[in-house]
Amino acid sequence: MTLILVMDNDFAIGKNGGLLYSLPLDMKHFRATTKNSAVIMGRKTYESFPKRPLPERENIVLSRNSSEIEGAKVFNDAKEMLSYVKTLDKKVFVIGGGEIYRLLLPYCDEALITRVYDSFGGDVFFYDIENDEKWELVESSPVFETNGKNIRFLRFMRKNS
C-alpha cells in the first residue's frame, strides 16, 4: 500500500477536520495519482469531501462507528480490511486521516508526501519520515509554487521492502 498526504514544516497534516491548505497543484497530483485505484480512509475524512464518493476510485472506509456509507465499502476491523485489499488488482492508497495513517503505516511500503514549506498551526500531525532510517527518499520534484505556497513532491520507499 501507498500512503499519500500533505505535510507542512511542523509535520502538520490537518486542522479542524480538514486540510491545512488549498493547493490546486497538489489536488491535481492527488487526482492523477489515485485515479483508477482504491483509496482507504477514515469516516471523518470521507465525510470531509465535498463530492462523495471520490470518483474513479474504489472508496474504502475504516470506521468503528459506521457499518454502511453510501458509495463506500466499509470495514469495522482493520484485519478484515487488509485481507480485502490484498485481493484487489489495483494500487491501494491510504489517504487519511491521522489515526488511519498511524494504523496503516506499518503496512505501507511507499509514501508520497507533498511537502509544504510553511507552518500553518495544524492540530493533526504525521511524523518526520524524512529522518526515519526505515525510509529512503527515492524521488524529489523541483519546488513548485501553488496558491502562494512552495511545495515539493517527495516519494519515499520503505527500506528492505
Quickly list its features.
alpha/beta, 161 residues, nine-stranded mixed beta sheet, two-stranded antiparallel sheet, 34% strand, single chain, 20% helix
Polypeptide structure, described:
- With 161 residues, the protein is α/β, with parallel strands linked by helices.
- The protein is built from 4 helices and 11 strands.
- The strands form 2 sheets. Strands 1, 3, 4, 5, 6, 7, 9, 10 and 11 form a 9-stranded mixed beta sheet that branches. Strands 2-8 form a two-stranded antiparallel ribbon.
- The chain starts with a strand and ends with a strand.
Number of helices: 4
* Average pLDDT number: 95
Helix content: 10-25%
Proportion in β-strands = 25-35%
- SS content category: alpha/beta
* CA-atom Rg in angstroms: 15 Å
Oligomeric state as shown: single chain
Largest sheet: 9 strands, mixed
Terminus-to-terminus distance:
11 Å
Low-confidence stretches: none
Compute the number of strand runs: 11
- Strand and helix order: EEHEHEEHEHEEEEE
Q: How does the overall form come out from the CA principal axes? A: globular
